[in-house]
């Protein structure tokens, strides 16, 4: 998966950004609140002055604010909110929204026809499918039920009956939101359970036979399983008749040989998991062995800037001009290396060895032997002293996670002396840090790494809990969209409110592209220009990399206009929720990574902020309509 720098921040780092408070979520939230307050006051005054005159309009706005804090909020009662929520819940059920669950069941039943049974990573395919299908169905449902409710009540005069009762505007808004959230939750829970059953049963299979079994000279057995679900495994057993198959399509099996000589193959393991990675600080060495912040650039376009020495846990040194971390490459057959220094290397976290996962890229400067692949090596090293283990060779498997376990004791060198090394005693420093060095062994070939390409894996979380957290993220997105739908429905008709909410959702999904465009403009990197320049290039059939074929004044006007458009979109995208980040939790689950609590806490905080903003806007617009006044 494509990991972003801020995916690894804790909630505290995300909210306060120590050392960079101007980029913190707290400051952005404060600025957004001030801006929303200012625009709300100005908009409210303009509407009120058009109705009552400039003087009375000011007092009308002041009375509305006074009523909120003096009467409506203190007078809001949970009993009335729940009664209105129950009403909204029943109203949504009358709209046949439960058919969404039936539609989801049909989608799951038909999914087997379209999901590729020969996929290299079926777990990723299945998990990504169910989460994506759930996401789109639930968000579409939230968009529909929240946008049409209030306008229909106003059109049918139902709202007039409600407002004549001792019910406050705050209770109407909160009741609507809670009722629709309850409907969405009732639909989301069975969809989550069905998704879990679909994924687990879809990936479950057994191998019942073995072939080509041969006894090894030093004891134990080797063989191969039968061909099931478009794959087979090879396996090796020790002298006790216990062993594992190789990893194929993201999973492996436990193999046992009983006293009667029969081989028993267990259920698949390793396909559905939630890895808890421990990332390290990444630095490079060039072909002469000199330290560098960046690896070799083999031609992938990216902005200037390095990974920095603070590592993936901070990534303070990562380039601020791009949202994606590009690969840096290590030259083979030289002193070039990529060195990862891992923290918290303790006996409690790694009692049986060091599980390490490699996800590397390979770049060939000549064709070479395509069949065998590019070779690399992993070496454990003391961060400061000249002590290191002997290298462990491997062959790069691109676009796959290569799982290995580094031993607790290994042969290595201490200066000029060769001896057995105890990793915790000899290779881990007093701060609990250890360095892992990755090299490319083939001359004139290259290995590509990012700060997340190599990580230790001290533990795994249950897959079921990880799926539950992915559905919690979907629930938060649903809650946010319901709040926006209710907000727009207080002053727009149903279809227009739905379109306005959909536009906000689409702009939220486009936030990353807007950020990238703005960063490229800031860095002065030409990529065809902004919307106006791109349109001119299309009409003139000019390439992206050439100078714009217009006179100097026209070029300046076009570039200035483009900058204004892009910065305006950037301001809007910054103000709207960054939905790709929330949807990205599905990618965590599909890729087998744990959705750690800080991500959900950040999403929950963002959801609370936008729901609060939508509630306040809904309250004032509903009060301004003076329904049944």
TrEMBL record:
It comes from the Bacteria. The chain crosses the membrane at residues 25-47, 97-115, 127-150, 178-199, 481-509, 604-622. The keyword Calcium does not apply. Keywords: Membrane, Transmembrane, Transmembrane helix. This is ABC-2 family transporter protein. It comes from Neorhodopirellula lusitana. The lineage of its organism: Bacteria, Pseudomonadati, Planctomycetota, Planctomycetia, Pirellulales.
